[in-house]
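Final report, Chapter 2: Outcomes

The project's central promise was a pipeline that accepts a single protein chain and returns its three-dimensional structure in a standardized token representation, suitable for archiving and comparison. That pipeline is now operational. To close this chapter, we reproduce one record exactly as it appears in the project archive, with the input sequence first and the structure output second.
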Amino acid sequence: MPRLREVPKAEADGSILPLYQLLFGDRDPVAEPGTATGTPGDWWTVFANSPETLAHAAQGFAYYRSPKRKLDPTLRELGQTWAGWATGSQFVFSQHCKSLRGLAYPEEKIEALPTWQTATCYTEKERLVLAYADRLVVHQGRVPDALFDALKAEFSDEEIMELTYTTCMYLMHAVMSRALRTEFDDRDDPITEVPAPEGFDALDFLGGNRDKKD
């Protein structure tokens, strides 16, 4: 379950009730969880602990879906989906794979995303978007001049600004989802110590001499 309390419909701030209604209909999302995309929906009920935070996040969704945006929505979704994969957010990755399908993006390309670096199915513009998204997410904004020059040769400044903003916004969402264990990110960290066999001696393994140590 999420690490923060979920806010039931009866306790939700009036400003976010329209969001609850849109996503969950007449249901209380805490008592009867579930969204149309198959998620529990607890991202929303956890964010509802701070109504202004949830409202701000919802404004971000409206921003990138606006018809005023110049960037091709498929390329935008590529950046967002890679942000989910590279950050290890199963929630963000899963949701934006679905968004890509909604835009009729080829299944071959969706399946190849984890290994886009060696895949041959992407166009040059798609590869530029993925390379830039990788530099934003994995390398925290360390973008070589050569990559940025190639980006500027294909995209306008406004398109690059939109790509940068939406990719970084979903890096934030991916990090927050993992930290708060919302939706599909409610899972234990797979990196834990595997116990040594019975009788294992770490000092012997490291080439030490127990007699001298004692």
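Archive annotation: The chain has eleven helices and no strands.
This record, like all others produced under the grant, will remain available to the consortium after the project formally closes.
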